[in-house]
Design a protein that fits this description.
Number of helices: 4
Order of helices and strands: HHHH
Number of strands: 0
Structural class: mainly alpha
Mean pLDDT: 90
Distance between the termini: 42 Å
Radius of gyration: 25 Å
Helix content: 55-70%
Shape: flat
Strand content: under 5%
Largest sheet: none
Length: 138
């Protein structure tokens, strides 16, 4: 993670330098500052600095290197428990369909919005309670 932090700080410094060069070059070439490019490059530098700052804070909060960064670690060291997933569940497809109907309603006709919301409610309830009834009940 240390190398990622250093790389993001390098990206941030690079874009600050490029922003300054771009601004000076436009002043010399055209006689005025071209604000869109200068601000865009400066904001790109700020975004790189923001990512570097976040990674640095995360690195300090976790107390050291991640298992993925240690050369002597095993695969199981960085393998967390991800939870329980249902590969046979059809509810995510219904949920995606309800989102599609809702978005089509936003684009085409507003009469589809309540239909998309109703499908969304049915899909969420079905997905949350699929282990409470039927073959997979606990």
């Amino acid at each position: 993670m240390r190398s990622n932090i250093v790389l993001w700080w390098i990206v941030a410094v690079f874009f600050v330098i490029v922003s300054a060069i771009y601004t000076v070059w436009n002043v010399i070439s055209h006689g005025y500052v071209e604000w869109v490019g200068s601000v865009a490059l400066l904001f790109t530098a700020f975004m790189g600095a923001m990512v570097a700052f976040y990674l640095h804070k995360t690195y300090r909060a976790q107390g050291g290197e991640l298992p993925e960064d240690v050369l002597t670690s095993d695969i199981d060291d960085g393998d967390p428990e991800m939870g329980e997933f249902s590969p046979w569940s059809w509810w995510p497809i219904v949920l995606a369909g309800s989102a599609a109907v809702f978005m089509i309603g936003l684009a085409v006709g507003h009469f589809l919005l309540p239909i998309g919301l109703a499908l969304f409610a049915v899909a969420i309830v079905g997905w949350v309670y699929e282990y409470y009834r039927g073959h997979f009940a606990r």
